[in-house]
Amino acid sequence: MVNSPIIKNMKILHVITSLHVGGAETLVVNLMPHFINLGYEVGIVVFNGEETPLTKKLQNDCPNCKLYKLGYSYYNPFYIIKLIWIMRKYDIIHTHNSSPQLFCVISNIFCKKKLITTEHSTNNRKREQGGVLRLMDKWMYNHYNSIICISEIATHELLKYLGKDNSHCICTINNGVDVGAINRSMPLTRKNNKFIILMVAGFREAKDQDTIVKAMQKLPKEKYEIWFVGEGTRKHDVEKLVKKVGVKDNVVFWGLRSDVNSFLKSADVIVMSSHWEGLSLSNIEGMSAGKPFIASDVKGLHEVTNGYGILFPHEDADSLATIIKKLHDDEQYYQKVASKCYERAQQFDISKTVKAYSEVYKSLV
C-alpha cells in the first residue's frame, strides 16, 4: 500500500460501463482497496450492473466501496438523471470508457464537480468518423479538469487529436497490477502435460484470438493446447474458426473466471494477440506470473513488451507458431525470457499507479 499524504475524507466516484472482465474494469476494482487504505471514501457507478467475477471480487476485497448499478445497458440517456443524484455526493468524478465520459460531463452541468477521465486506448471510433460525433467528442474532453492516459503512445495519440493546447491537463499514468499477489498464486491442477498457451481477454473488436487459433494449426496437436479466458461478442466467431481449421480438441474456452491469477501461473506461455491496445493489463499480469509473454507488435503492447517479452508481427500466425515452438523446445531460452518478463512487470506494480492517481486527485482540490 502507498503511504502518501492525502486530503482527509476526500470522496472519489469512479464511473464505468460495467465490471465485465477487461483492463479498465480490472484496474478500477484493484485500485479501490488501496484508496480506502489511504483514507478516501470511494464509490463505483456501473451502467450495466450485471453480476460478474469482478463484482464479487470488489465485494470481497473492498466491502466499504459503495457500488451503484444504474441498469443493464450502456447508453441509456436516463442514466444522466441518476448520475446527477449520485455525483452530488462526491468531490471528484473519475470516468472510464466512452458513454460514462459523455454522460458524466452532461450530468456535471448540474453538479459542478471536478472531472477526471482515464483514456484506456489509443483508438476511438469517433476520432476516425469525424462529423458531429467528432465535434461532440472534443466538446466532451474540453470539460475534463484532468485526462490520464495509460501509456505514452495513448498520450501521443490523444494530443495529436485534441491539439497541444490541451497538454496542460493531459498526463500519463501507467496501469499497474499487484505483481507479488499474482506471482504467489497457486496454479490449477492440470489434466495433461501439454504446453499451455493462454490468452486472457474479452472477445471483442480490439482482440485477435483468431491468430492464436491459426498458429495452433501449425503446431503438433499432441503437444500444445490453447486456453481462452473471457467472454464477448466475438466468441462465437472464434468458436466457428476453431472448428473450421480442425483444432477443436486443442482449444478450451473457460469463460469468465474469478481465479485468473491461477490460470496465469498454470500456463506455459501467455499471449496477447490484439489489433490495438492502450496499455494491456493482461500484458503486465502475464509478465507478473513469471512466464514468457508474447504480444502482437501493435501500439500499446510494443512499448511494454519490447526488450523483455517477445513481439510477433500483427496477425502473423506463422511467426507466432515459430516463437511458441522455440519456447517449448529451448529450456534455456524459455527461462531467459520468463526472467526478463518478471523484471519488466515489477516496473508496473499497482503501488506506483495508486500514488500517481492520488497526486492528481490532490491537485484538483
Please describe what this structure looks like:
This protein folds into 2 domains: 11-176 and 349-363, Glycogen Phosphorylase B (Rossmann fold, 3-Layer(aba) Sandwich), CATH 3.40.50; 179-348, Rossmann fold (3-Layer(aba) Sandwich), CATH 3.40.50.2000. Helices cover 42% and strands 18% of the residues. It contains 16 helices and 13 strands. The protein has helices at residues 23-37, 53-61, 79-87, 98-107, 125-129, 131-141, 152-162, 179-183, 209-217, 235-244, 260-266, 281-288, 302-305, 317-329, 331-345, 350-363, and strands spanning 11-16, 41-48, 66-71, 92-96, 114-119, 146-149, 170-172, 195-200, 224-229, 251-255, 269-272, 293-296, 310-312. A 7-stranded parallel beta sheet has the order 3-2-1-4-5-6-7, sandwiched between helices. The chain has a 6-stranded parallel beta sheet with strand order 10-9-8-11-12-13, sandwiched between helices. Strand 11, helix 12 (281-288) and strand 12 form a beta-alpha-beta unit. It starts with 10 loop residues before the first strand and ends with a helix. The model has no long low-confidence stretch (mean pLDDT 92).
